[in-house]
């Protein structure tokens, strides 16, 4: 997510932005989530952070990483239940009305918060957003969008995990939402759109890709055809559309590959005697490249197509990434992404 672009968006009235954090969601909740949120809040007094979850477990962590008193812009809302990664998302959302993620969504619906940040079960986050906030008019399924680093600027990839088994019509709607997001939020004029498939040639790919091809080609979107996986680092289009399963595998492969490459570099630079010498010369460049591929800095993925700002970050997120997720969630709320998509679709 390009934070500089988002910071230029419209503000939510004159009041501070309020971000509801699912304190019980994620592999390392509530400890890492609460500490990361409190640490971030200390240096962002302009944003109200609302920690939602079991207050008996949250309260001892409100000192953050240094153990001092919690800043004044941090508050808590009690939730008696939580949803684990092993539970069926839709069933758990409906049966656990007081789950922390449901309480977060209701705060947005009732106008008591402007955004939700969660590291919890992705399916539960999507289901809760649909049930508690509802879809935007003209949207059958929401989509998770993420910015990927390419050699010529950021590229929007969606869907990366909101709903699987998309139809051709769903992919067509993702193309519209991704194009709106790229244009209205990232400032890309007349963004190009491509479908991720098994070949560049038109007509290649599964049935839903072929159906989406016909729909997008007949629309006013700037459709440039299919893109293959090998093309993604070369920015084949400003917006690349795919089913959630394909998108999720793609983004996690990129994250894993970047970690693997830097691990290999670290091993080589430790080889005596030339490794440390080589590292001394290459350190500044390696640092710049590492920063570009630092997926934690992206914060997470906004859920496009629902009536509210929802940011879903990695389930394995620790305090550093929680801070980046809050940064993106607050900035996205200021940019009023759902309103911009709704206006454009209208």
Descriptive overview:
With 346 residues, this protein is an alpha/beta fold. Helix content is 43%, strand content 16%. The protein has 12 helices and 11 strands. It has helices at 3-7, 31-42, 55-58, 89-95, 100-109, 122-132, 168-184, 207-217, 244-269, 274-292, 319-335, 337-345, and strands spanning 17-22, 47-53, 74-78, 115-118, 143-148, 155-158, 192-196, 222-227, 239-241, 301-304, 309-312. The chain has an 11-stranded mixed β-sheet, with helices on both faces. Strand 10 and strand 11 (309-312) form a beta hairpin. The radius of gyration is 20 Å and the shape is globular. The two termini are 25 Å apart.
Task: Outline the secondary-structure elements.
Blueprint: H1 3-7, E1 17-22, H2 31-42, E2 47-53, H3 55-58, E3 74-78, H4 89-95, H5 100-109, E4 115-118, H6 122-132, E5 143-148, E6 155-158, H7 168-184, E7 192-196, H8 207-217, E8 222-227, E9 239-241, H9 244-269, H10 274-292, E10 301-304, E11 309-312, H11 319-335, H12 337-345
Parallel strand pairs: 1-2, 1-4, 2-3, 4-11, 6-9, 7-8, 7-9
Antiparallel strand pairs: 5-6, 5-10, 10-11
Helix pairs in contact: 2-11, 4-6, 5-6, 7-8, 7-12
Question: Which terms summarize this structure?
Answer:
eleven-stranded mixed sheet; alpha/beta; about 350 residues; globular
